[in-house]
# Entry
Amino acid sequence: MSEWTVHGSRTIYTSPWVELDLVDVEPPGHARYEHHLIKLAPVAATVLLDDSERVLLMWRHRFATKTWNWEIPSGIVEPGEDLAVAAAREALEETGYQVEASALEPLAYNQPIGGMSTAEHHVFLGRDAVRVADPVDTHEADRIEWRPLDQVQQMIDDRQIVAGVAVTGLLQLIARR
# Structure
């Protein structure tokens, strides 16, 4: 199969968080048409694991999907920011737990909606996190808890963990055990 031909694009909406383009594409052997492309900044996330084989999870509501679920700390990578630095920053801001960016291990990478978005998720594994403060981003979670890793698969099966970046990172951690 050949690559699609891109004949051009035009931005129809932009903000600091998202850009929406219409792209003039031509799939091999098919007619040209305009395809939506959602451009998003990369996301960095951290699975924090303690010595008791527990992961730090945040119970939160997502208004877009009307979903309550457990998530891992994650957020947008600022322009020019190192991925691991962003992951450590988000963990501190959202949970109050600090982990050194240099100690984070790459755990997972995915493109959650590759057919129509530039979104990329970079998930790191952090150990030896230390609680140094209250969360700065108090709107991020109703509560923060250490949960046993051996319960995570069932939590995913029960749709208690549904966020793509969390599912990807946690399943990758389970697969590596």
Summary: Residues 83-95 form the longest helix (13 residues). DSSP finds three helices and twelve strands in the chain.
